[in-house]
User: Which sequence fits this backbone?
């Protein structure tokens, strides 16, 4: 039910991001989703990859501070209001959403979003009860 | 317990009277007996008679380790060898060792100082003192030994090394006080743990540790590992050896044996005397010594002085833990900054590695000051708020310790160069000539 996201600390320095993508490339790691949150002098890159443990290992070996965070991948119809109904369910249950971002690919006619929530266990239950489909590692 | 109430709890006025009398006597002695001092004083145009108050101390020349080296081995002695009963020497990392000599009275005074330290650590004549400092030319072993014996304790002259035997005797002889370097104390405590010996099997109550810099974190570890209270002892062979100052039960600075030594803190660059509380290089003038009295000896140790009366009842001036060496000092925006201070702050954060770099530069006629630290591997850094808050905490602690703000930069672990021998922690790109 859960997805392992890789979070990477990036110094704000030209070329740092390409250092990162080079490591993934050299180690044949496929990136399924990515987003960057940035501040004045550093950024945190969040990504979903096919082999998160390996990614963290090789990143650490290459001087990146990287760690794994538990997130949810939610799939729903790509129609207006669909995301709202998901968020509404979570809000009703008082589950805070820290951030969301989109998957690079999704099934035709569907949207797939990564959700980082305060309580992933509870969020998972709530979404399942409401027949909202959650993707697991092998689905993505 | 206070070993010598008259000396340690004296009214300031009384103490100053004693200090002045002894200072005058010392200056007369060195002027008469030590050529280097006579020359130095004559160059400054001062004679012993010019010293009429403690304030006049400022008129006297400084003494450095180089003076001792140039006068190797006995040139700075103020007593003939016939009066010297003991010689110690510090192993010079470069060149010749520095040699010091003690008269019989010097050894008595030294023992008196160390007995006061033992008393601060709760020792008395019923104590069993295990001396695990090295015996030999180094002042630690014989110094602690003499003081413990003088107090009337039972002394176990173990010297350093042979950790298994240290532990065996510590258990069987029921040692109550351990004296050694902090790093050796840590070694003993680790060996104890490895052997499965619990602190309940020991009679150890306290430890007096010194002769090398150590951190508060290390102190806690030693206290826990040995089940004791740890005390800091300060000293250097040039001045006497261990026992120049020692921390008391309040654990808030080390009491200086002021009837034997006058302490000043100076700005290491300008040599100006600093007010109490400000950190600077501590300078000692020995006022009871016969063998090798030193005037305004520059220790290179950075600390600050605390004049307030201590909770333990002693009135003597206290010196803070040594924060660094004056050779490492940086002046940033007019404030003295020591890399060791930054090290002590970052070592308090499990989220950071022990690697850091200090970058000092100059922009728009202002000093720029950046500190680069590394985030430890395995840190859950998903959250920006977490990183920002960590930064705020580190920033706050650095500012509290340094007295000025810096630009803090987080780097990934392994980004900073690893030390191979002595790490280069400081990059100062300021053109100092334009600062005049
Ligand atoms: Zn005290």
Assistant:
């Amino acid at each position: 039910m859960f997805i392992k996201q890789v979070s990477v600390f990036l110094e704000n320095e030209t070329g740092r991001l390409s250092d990162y993508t080079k490591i993934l490339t050299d180690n044949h790691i496929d990136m399924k989703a990515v987003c960057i949150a940035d501040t004045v002098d550093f950024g945190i890159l969040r990504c979903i990859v096919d082999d998160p443990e390996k990614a963290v290992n090789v990143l650490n070996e290459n001087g990146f501070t990287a760690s794994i965070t538990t997130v949810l991948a939610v799939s729903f119809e790509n129609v207006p209001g669909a995301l709202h109904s998901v968020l509404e369910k979570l809000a009703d249950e008082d589950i805070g959403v820290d951030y969301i971002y989109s998957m690079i690919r999704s099934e035709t006619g569907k949207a797939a979003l990564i959700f980082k929530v305060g309580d992933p266990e509870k969020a998972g239950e709530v979404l399942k009860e409401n027949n909202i489909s959650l993707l697991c590692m092998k689905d993505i | 317990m206070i070993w010598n109430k008259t000396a340690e709890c004296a009214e300031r006025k009384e103490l100053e009277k004693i200090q002045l009398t002894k200072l005058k006597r010392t200056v007369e002695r060195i002027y008469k007996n030590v050529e280097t001092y006579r020359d130095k004083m004559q160059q400054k145009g001062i004679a012993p008679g010019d010293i009429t108050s403690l304030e006049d101390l400022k008129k006297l020349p400084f003494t450095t380790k180089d003076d001792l080296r140039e006068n190797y081995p006995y040139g700075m002695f103020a007593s003939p060898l016939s009066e010297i009963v003991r010689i110690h020497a510090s192993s010079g990392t470069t060149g010749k060792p520095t040699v010091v000599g003690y008269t019989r009275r010097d050894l008595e005074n030294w023992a008196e100082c160390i007995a006061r330290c033992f008393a601060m650590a709760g020792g008395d004549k019923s104590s069993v003192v295990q001396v695990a400092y090295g015996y030999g030319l180094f002042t630690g072993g014989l110094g602690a030994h003499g003081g413990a014996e003088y107090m009337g304790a039972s002394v176990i002259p173990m010297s350093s090394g042979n950790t298994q035997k240290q532990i065996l005797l510590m258990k069987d002889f029921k040692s109550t006080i351990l004296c050694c370097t902090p790093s050796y104390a840590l070694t003993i405590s680790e060996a104890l743990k490895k052997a499965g010996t619990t602190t309940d099997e020991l009679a150890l109550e306290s430890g007096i540790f010194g002769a090398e810099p150590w951190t508060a974190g290390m102190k806690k570890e030693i206290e826990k590992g040995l089940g004791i209270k740890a005390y800091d002892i300060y000293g250097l062979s040039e001045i006497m050896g261990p026992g120049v100052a020692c921390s008391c039960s309040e654990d808030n600075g080390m009491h200086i044996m002021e009837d034997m030594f006058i302490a000043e803190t100076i700005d290491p660059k300008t040599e100006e005397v600093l007010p109490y509380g400000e950190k600077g290089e501590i300078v000692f003038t020995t006022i009871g010594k016969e063998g090798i009295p030193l005037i305004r000896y520059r220790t290179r140790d950075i600390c600050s002085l605390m004049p307030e009366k201590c909770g333990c009842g002693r009135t003597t001036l206290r010196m803070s833990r040594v924060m660094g060496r004056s050779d490492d000092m940086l002046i940033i925006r007019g404030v003295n900054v020591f890399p060791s201070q930054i090290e002590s702050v970052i070592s308090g954060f499990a989220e950071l590695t022990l690697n850091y770099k200090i970058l000092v530069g100059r922009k728009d006629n202002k000093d720029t000051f950046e500190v680069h630290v590394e985030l430890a591997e395995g840190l859950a850094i998903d959250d920006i708020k977490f990183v920002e808050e960590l930064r705020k905490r580190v920033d706050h602690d650095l500012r509290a310790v340094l007295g000025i703000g810096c630009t803090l930069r987080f780097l990934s672990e392994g980004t900073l160069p690893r030390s191979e021998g002595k790490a280069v922690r400081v990059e100062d790109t300021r053109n100092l000539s334009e600062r005049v």
